[in-house]
Amino acid sequence: MKVLLIAGARPNFMKIAPVYRVAGQYPEVDCRIVHTGQHYDYEMSQSFFKDLGIPEPDFFLGSGSGSHAEQTARIMVAFEKICQEEQPDWVVVVGDVNSTLACSVVAKKLMIKVSHIEAGLRSRDMTMPEEINRLVTDSISDLFFVTEQSGMDNLLKEGKPPEAVYLVGHVMIDNLFYQLEQLKTMDSSTFAVAKVKPEPGEYIFLTLHRPSNVDDRDVFSSIVEALNRIAKDFTILFPVHPRTRKQIDLFGLKFSENIEL
Hints:
- With 261 residues, this protein is α/β, with parallel strands linked by helices.
- The strands form two sheets. A seven-stranded parallel β-sheet has the order 3-2-1-4-5-6-7, with helices on both faces.
- It has helices spanning 12-23, 46-52, 68-86, 98-109, 129-140, 149-157, 171-183, 211-214, 217-230, 242-251, and strands at residues 2-7, 30-35, 59-60, 90-94, 113-117, 143-146, 165-167, 203-205, 235-237, 259-260.
- β4, α4 (98-109) and β5 (113-117) form a beta-alpha-beta unit.
């Protein structure tokens, strides 16, 4: 059985890694990784894949950034060629990025079965591109792997067959357990973040880049105000996304000295 495992944005590799590692335990499963190259064309070193316990992608589509329509279209055109050449039995998608929707639609129109990991999650907010991606993907998938009970409830209410819906837990937790085991034999002092982690002491790790949070001056200013109050009690480590950095400069926002950007 041949399976194409789809990773869109770089964080998707954390989601597909546990699936790929388990697939390797079954000789009858030929699992191949497709990197669509969504968002940014990252220079990912071999050490990145080694740390996750997976090989470099078998296919790289290089879709790049652009509008939702442009990006989705490029992924669909490139992925269709891969499917026609490889003739997979299954396409496995994760999450809710544009690659999830694009590869699902391509596979389904080529009569290839689709399974969706993190299926059934709903925000009920149709202004979120991710919500549209989730709904479309779930409307055409054949198997649904769900992280939490709300996902089960949503899918069953939407009429999905119970025998196709599985409550399996969260792949990111599987990956966390894997990484904790790896840390036992790794020299953590070589990690870049080791230079900024407060020793000893508790700290908060922050990511912030969703458009609804950073594109509106009032919303973003309120978030920064709250973070600055929290930073009176905790050090906050904040790797800044390029989109967020642009908005910080545009709005002239100031962070507490106890927030490490």
